[in-house]
Specification:
The structure holds 2 protein chains of 2 kinds.
Chain A lengths: L2 H12 L6 H20 L2 H17 L10 H19 L7 H12 L6 H13 L3 H12 L4 H8 L3 H23 L4
Helix pairs in contact in A: 2-3, 2-4, 3-4, 4-8, 5-9, 7-8, 7-9, 8-9
Chain B lengths: L2 H9 L10 H14 L7 H23 L10 H36 L1
The chains are: A mainly alpha, B mainly alpha.
Chain lengths: 183, 112
Amino acid sequence: MSAEEDAADVARVLAGDVSAFEAIVRRWQKPLVSLAYRFCRDRGRAEDMAQEAFLRAYRRLASWRHEAAFSTWLFALATNLYRSEIRRLPPLTAPLDEGVTALDRRAREPILDEERRDQTIRNAVLALPAKYRDVLTLFYFHGMDIATSAASLGVPDGTVKARLSRGRDILRNKLQSLLGNLS
Amino acid sequence: MKPEELDRVLSEETDIVPSSGFVAAVMEAVTTEATAPPLTFPWKRAWPLVAGFPALLVWLVFLQFGPASTSSGPDLYAWFEMMVPMATGWVAGALLMTVAMTAWSLRLVRIK
């Protein structure tokens, strides 16, 4: 993905060539839909959210100041939208405490297989308090890059580090009884 | 399971491939947005208010400071004093109306 291509396409769109926006959509559709999916765990809804993010990006394209990379601006815009959407209509997951209680019963049975365990951990992230859920989601989506995660969330790096540490602690404590010692 | 395994599970999640019609759907929405006429202020509906409010102000000033104000014209202060007992009800009504309209508009936004 080329920053120059982004800049050129944005310039064409701002000059009135709406069709140039298609190249931007093609370039960024997969990351934006994937990020949306991590917030909602629903493919259909993830596409709806990503579509709204692209539409909002189109409306606000002139506000990209080129000080940051286009991708940074786009992810910050999308993240902001996704967080609002999830706040407005939370994903259909049980609260973490309920989930763990339910899973405790299964834990007495044979140990969860790896795939089910991984899915349990991913779903458990969604049940975290929003400020920890958002940081963990962005941190792992951006390949564990704190600076990029901070830029997407619009908070300082230190805030991301603190929330990341606390979020992981909560996650580990909640999952400990089910999945064994995470410490 | 170690903390680094938690990192592995959460970072190795595979990306979602958008459906084949995704780009077309986005571009349709963008094109609709680009070609839609801009919203204009509804002057036709608003003109009675726009014209009436300044006229009301002029009339009140005229009543208070005009040539008839010292003689037989209506006394604005007396008029306000007469209105005060009714004001509480009007203010309460307006607040209730505001709350109802806010709740309704929020509901509409959620539905949308």
